[in-house]
Amino acid sequence: MSDLLLLVAFVAAVNPPRSRLALPDQGAGRPRPLVVVIGSVGAVAVIAGLAGASAPVLDAVEVTPETFRIAAGLVAVLAGGWAFVFPLPTSEPPLRGWRAGIWPVAYPLILAPEVLLLAIAGGTQNGAVGTTAAAVSAIAALGLLGLVPDRGTAPRVLAAAGRVLAGLLVVVGIFLMIDGIRDV
């Protein structure tokens, strides 16, 4: 998978516009910056760890990288279809204080199953550095969208952009499955 496709895959999987709609806010329709930073840093650490340990993880479960790409692609297709049909993420009750960065920001908003599987699949093909860089770019887009107030037409625009990225995630998932099948 090329670096550009990996970047597109992470942006589609993290789906910053859709995820932005579920960030815990501090009032006035803006998310709490400390919570977003904590969640983002924690998510990047998990993604980097999974990407770096992707080969040993796949060896431990006796799955080839090609087969794993097929499975990751299937999960991406299902997740993209779900996000397309349900453009607003479910509202999770946040933990108190800075711990809201762990729940719901890091997990389940950023570290959704499709992102975790993409980190492992990307780690086997593009290495830990390339995979982490793509993930950081996608998560940074979520941080930038955190500056957009959640009022007026912004939620509808974010939901529409989230649907576009959900459709793109379906396309990326199909590509991953075909790429895995072709490499087997």
Short description:
Helices cover 74% and strands 0% of the residues.
- Report, as a whole number of angstroms, the end-to-end distance: 15 Å
| Elements, N to C (H/E) | HHHHHHHH
Radius of gyration: 16 Å
Mean pLDDT level: 94
Q: Could you say which structural class the secondary elements and strand pairing correspond to?
A: mainly alpha
Oligomeric form: single chain
> Percent helix among the residues?
over 70%
Unreliable segments (pLDDT under 50, ≥5 consecutive)? none
Q: What's the total count of β strands?
A: 0
Largest sheet: none
Q: How many H/I helices?
A: 8
Strand content: under 5%
Taken from the alpha-carbon principal axes, the silhouette is globular
Structurally, the number of domains stands at: 1
Please describe the topology of this protein.
Layout: H1 3-14, H2 16-20, H3 33-52, H4 54-60, H5 65-85, H6 102-110, H7 113-145, H8 154-183
General description of the model:
With 184 residues, this protein is mainly alpha-helical. It has one domain. 74% of the residues lie in helices and 0% in strands. It is built from 8 helices and no strands. The radius of gyration is 16 Å and the shape is globular. The model has no long low-confidence stretch (mean pLDDT 94).
